[in-house]
Design brief:
By secondary structure, the protein is an alpha+beta fold. The chain contains 2 helices and 3 strands; from the N terminus they run E-H-E-E-H. A 3-stranded mixed beta sheet has the order 1-2-3, covered by helices on one side. The longest helix is centred in the C-terminal third of the chain and has 27 residues. The chain starts with a strand and ends in an 11-residue tail after the last helix. The model has no long low-confidence stretch (mean pLDDT 85).
């Protein structure tokens, strides 16, 4: 059996007619480019079942507003401590001044 591939532009122009033909039982319609099928118009009973969606159990933890505020405060304190340590490292110990030559 040779399948005929309808071009995208033609399928766009004739879409209502193609849908009616498939619904009336004339078989699936292949749509594509350059003679290669890219999609198929078919009746829902012939189409594969859509994937089943599952709940996102265990992936998301719901926290209270208070926990968010505490977490934010903890992060800010850690950032401030890290910046203070960096400043001490960069500044280093105070250097002794040597007398100036004239």
């Amino acid at each position: 059996m040779c399948m005929k591939v309808v071009g995208i532009a033609e399928a766009r122009r004739r879409l209502p007619q193609l849908v009616r033909a498939v619904a009336d039982g004339h078989g699936p319609v292949y749509v594509g480019r350059r003679g290669r099928a890219e999609v198929v118009l078919t009746v829902p009973s012939a189409a594969p079942a859509p994937p089943q969606r599952r709940e996102l159990a265990g992936l998301v933890a719901i926290v209270s507003h208070d926990a968010l505020v505490e977490g934010r405060a903890e992060i800010r304190a850690q950032v401030a401590d890290g910046l203070a340590r960096k400043a001490e490292i960069v500044a280093g110990p105070p250097k002794a001044r040597s007398p100036r030559r004239r």
